[in-house]
Amino acid sequence: MGLGMGSARVDRRQLIVGWFLVLSYAIGSPVFAIVEARTGLISQRFDYSPDFLYLVSGIQFVCSLVLFVRSAAPWSAMVLTVLTAGAVVSHFRINSPVTALPALVYSALQIWYGLRMYRQLHDKPA
């Protein structure tokens, strides 16, 4: 199973980061889509189409669930990192670099988590 459940190789930090990513995206992505559908605020602020934002939200939701699949977790973390990098660029594009900080933190966590999962998949048992 992903997130290292039942594996002695996964440390507590990795488990916490994995669950944080899963829960924050599994809950946050639908909330993001609902807020956009009701208010249109996000598409107006960033000048993106609502359909694009729904697509991004859907990809985030699916990737959060794929973090449970050990063999796909590094790829899922990579896709999430590309999306958060896009969020950082979007915040800088509207001259709001401070609001890009959460996306930068997510990017760092996702890179760390993805690399840990990748290394665990490719380590040869002694």
Percent strand equals under 5%
Percent of residues in helices? over 70%
Structural class, from secondary structure content? mainly alpha
Cα-based radius of gyration, to the nearest Å: 16 Å
Q: Give the end-to-end Cα distance, rounded to a whole number of Å.
A: 21 Å
**Domain count:** 1
Q: What are the secondary-structure elements, in order, as H or E? A: HHHHH
Instruction: Please count the helical segments.
Output: 5
How would you sum up this structure, described in words?
By secondary structure, the protein is an all-alpha fold. The chain has one domain (11-120). The protein has helices at 12-39, 41-46, 50-66, 73-93, 101-122. The radius of gyration is 16 Å and the shape is elongated.
Summarize the structure.
The chain is mainly alpha-helical and 126 residues long.
Offer a few descriptive terms:
126 residues; mainly alpha; 5 helices; 0% strand; elongated
Topology record:
Elements: H1 12-39, H2 41-46, H3 50-66, H4 73-93, H5 101-122
